[in-house]
Amino acid sequence: MRYVSIKDDSLLVARLESLSIAHPREGFWKCYHRLSNSGRHVNHKRLHRVYKQMGLPLRRKVKKRLPARVKEAIIIPQTFAQTWSMDFMSDALGNGRKFRSFNVIDDFNREALFIETDYSLKSSRVVWVLRHLVNRHGKPHKIRMDNGPEFIAKLAQGWAWANGIEFKYTQPGKPTQNALIERFNKSYREGVLDAYHFDSLDEVRDVTWGWMKDYNESRPHDALGGMSPVDYKNQKHQGLRSATLHSVPDVLMID
Q: How many domains, the chain?
């Protein structure tokens, strides 16, 4: 007594299967127009019903919404290890294989704290580098960065919260809000990435280490009055120590 459909969709199923194999990234309307253009007219509602029954609809990638980012002026800190800036760069070896570099500098004297290079650099690697730098230089108050997936990952944000470090995110599409690291990236690209033809990551790391040593200890920096980052840091810290000693009052010794 129950109605049984007599529709035969086997032909449509076969056609959709062949289209999905030949063009796996095309959606429903592409399939519909391909069938119509080939002279096989079919009602689009019927085709869509079969299309869904076969489980062919593509999952749409939803862009992750970012919280509102506030524009903040870059303020140069007065001492070392107060504010850091970090960013990623990309390049390729001679065989075409791409690699990335993770750069971290101190905003006070533009010193290159670390350059990590590898084929893949995930948020866990970012946390490893930052933990190493904190153990070596002390904990900064804040770190400036863009909205890269490695930086907004829960692992990186959780580490920053646990250590009391504030992550300062720039507004999307505004690289000038992180101008210090962008300027450093330009120097690194001109001095290393674009200056050599690399065949392996070991070569990249060796040249990077030598360049970074020269950049920190010898290379004059215009923003530092022609001094190198290390010399500038040493001079400033020596001046602060001298000012502190002169500010200590004399103690009278009474017998």
A: 2
* 8 A C-beta contact, residue 22 and residue 62: no
Do 99 and 220 lie in one domain? The reply is: yes
Residues 49 and 96 in one domain: no
CA 68 to chain centre: 18
Rounded CA gap, 199 and 81, in Å? 35
**Is 89 domain-assigned?**
yes
Pairwise CA distance, residues 125 & 161, whole Å: 17
Question: Is 51 a residue whose pLDDT tops 90?
Answer: no
Any domain includes 215: yes
For residue 123, the enclosing domain spans 83-224
Helices 201-217 and 229-246: crossing angle in degrees, nearest 10, is: 40
The pTM assigned to this predicted structure is 0.69
Judging by DSSP bridges, how do beta strands 83-92 and 166-169 pair with one another? unpaired
- What does the alpha-carbon distance between residue 119 and residue 117 come to, in Å, rounded to a whole number? 7
Q: List pLDDT tens digits, range 153-199.
A: 888 999 999 999 999 999 888 888 999 999 999 999 999 999 999 99
- Does residue 102 belong to any structural domain of this protein? yes
